[in-house]
Description:
Elements: H1 8-22, H2 27-48
Protein name: Inner membrane protein
Pfam family, one: DUF2496
Organism: Cronobacter condimenti 1330
Amino acid sequence: MSLEQAPDEVKLAVDLIMLLENHDIAPQTVLAALEIVRDDYLRKLREQEK
């Protein structure tokens, strides 16, 4: 499967990985930031479901 045919979440994940790797961000920093982003988007999702 080519990236063009991949689901949107896979395309986004690849873009994010490339961005983070290009900026040489430490893995522990990336994981901490992703946890913050995940919490924020879970909150937004809960608000949409109301």
